Amino acid sequence: MVCPLPSISLCMLPSLNFEQRHSFRSSLKPTSETLQRELFHKFNSPFELQQVHTLVIKTGTPLSALPLSRVASICALTPSFPYARRIFQLVDQPEISLWNSCLRDFAESDSPFDAILLFHQLRSHNVCPDSFTCSFVLKACLQLLDLFHGRIIHAFVEKLGLQFNLVLQNVILHLYSSCGQISDAILLFNKMPQRDTVTWNTMITQLGKRGDADSAYEMFLQMPERNVRSWTAMVSGFVQCGKPKEAVDLFTKMEEVGLKPNEVTVVAVLAACADLGALNVGRRIHKYSDESGFQRNIKISNTLIDMYIKCGCLEAARDVLGGMKERTVISWSTMIQGLAIHGKADEALELFSEMTQTGIKPNAVTFIGLLNACSHMGLINEGYAFFASMTRDYGIIPGIEHYGCMVDLLSRAGLLQQAHEFIKQMPIMPNAAIWGALLGGCKVHKNIEMAELAMRHLHELDSLNDGYYVVLANIYSEAKQWDNAARLRKLMRNRGLKKTLGLSSVSIKEVAHEFVAGDDTHPQFQEILKMWNQLQVHMRLKGYIPNTSVVLLDIDEKEKEKVLSRHSEKLALVFGLIRTPPGETIRIFKNLRICEDCHASFKLISEIVDREIVVRDRNRFHCFKDGCCSCRDYW
DNA sequence: GTAGGGTTAG
């Protein structure tokens, strides 16, 4: 027999200490409050539902005291479902709202498919869904990119007469567009009776993700009202579409309009600066970000690290990493990759062990950075060791990129036969990048036979890429096989391929000055030429001999030297020397790889003019100082 | 209840 004491709330007894309270409590009949609290902890399996229910009845506790949403999530996908329903029907709360909160939790959980299962459960037990039900299930479909169920729910929305619910229409639009059904999305967009900013922003975001910057921008201009998210979506879209300049320009316009960029905008525009190598804009945004109180945002810090690295400022990148209170695997991987392209393999490897010591597990991208570091410095054994370790110690299956790094590592080091064997033993089909890496090694190590073999594969895999033909033509002309070189040029012509023009830019007071190879139409060309001739006198005294073998054309030596002296990176450097004060570091950005003659020249010039010259080429950084390059001539 | 962001071989 239960002790017939009146129900007293424990909080009415503040003077009792913990032990007293505890002994008192055990002699009391549970109140609704204590019951509710305890139920929350006890509720673990559906078996206990009946026991709890019995307790509730025995103590006369109102049913609403039960943690109903917890009951719902525990019973949702079990045979106790009907039992839970019977309880819900006794509570003064719409049944569907309980299932909805459960659906929301499932949709946001690690297994969103549970939301879809629950939806089927609800349907088969004739529970009537409402608009919230649909929105949560659609959210689950979106997480899973489950177009099949998405279409079912869409049909259901129409059946329930919810086709005028703007929120639902927006989710459906989002679902179609992110499942790659852009034409369905556009169809829906066009027939929507009303649209809001979310509708437009969704379209802009998804078009940007698909690489269609033009359509996205058209929408951006067309939309009646733009908020910060609209601008952010467009800035981000430009970055994703490989238009970082447009991204920075739009960002500037956004500031002019008086809108305050938020954390997401900052990430997007910093990524644009990284792509552009726009250090000054990047620095300004870093300052803005700090002033806005974004210091603790990990994604911003990670993007800042990447931005500084890609702008050639390793020190600044280190400072950002050093100042981070919390780091993710991305923070470390970004820095490791950064050190790799700056030729600091030892530091990259050190950072890796520091990372694992702090308990952070590397991911597939971390290993790309590590292998890259080995590759840029010729660390063959270390590279093999990392390649083996990634699977053995971390269960990461190497992807095509990892194989690419290994082929690059071996080829660069001149182990061409070994590289070829490695390719033949790959468990996945080698792609153009793999053969391209081998071809690159053949150029450095002047192996015509292997180069031709690689080219046969490249011919099949990526016949429209001019770069490979140029490399092979280069190999031929260096070996003075003019017939073969000419044959290749003819092949390129027949295929409608043109050699990508060399483009270099040098930034002076925030303005990027661009130079094209061979361009003598620049207004300051005469000045540049004069300066180059002066430099050459000093260079020749230091033993400089123009390396005319890099010139593809079969022309006389004097002509070759002329072509050589007008390489875009040389024009940019000389212009930079003229227009900047002595001692200032010169930063050059080139779209292709730096040529061997320019590399040799820059080393000498850095010594002659006593300046640091930082060149970011298509692959990595070269930092010239006191007659040496940070790549130690291994590239 | 609906829209967004960070590292990735050559």
TrEMBL record:
Note the segments forming the PPR repeats: 196-226, 227-261, 328-362
Repeat listed as a keyword: yes
Q: State if Repeat is listed as a keyword.
A: yes
Q: What are the alphabetically sorted keywords of the record?
A: Repeat
GO:BP terms for this protein? RNA modification
Under the heading InterPro entries, the entry gives:
DYW_dom, E_motif, PPR_At4g14850-like_plant, PPR_rpt, TPR-like_helical_dom_sf
Q: Which GO terms describe its molecular function?
A: RNA binding; zinc ion binding
Per the database record, which ranges form the DYW domain?
543-635
Which family would the database say this protein is a member of? Belongs to the PPR family. PCMP-H subfamily.
This chain's protein is named Pentatricopeptide repeat-containing protein At5g66520-like
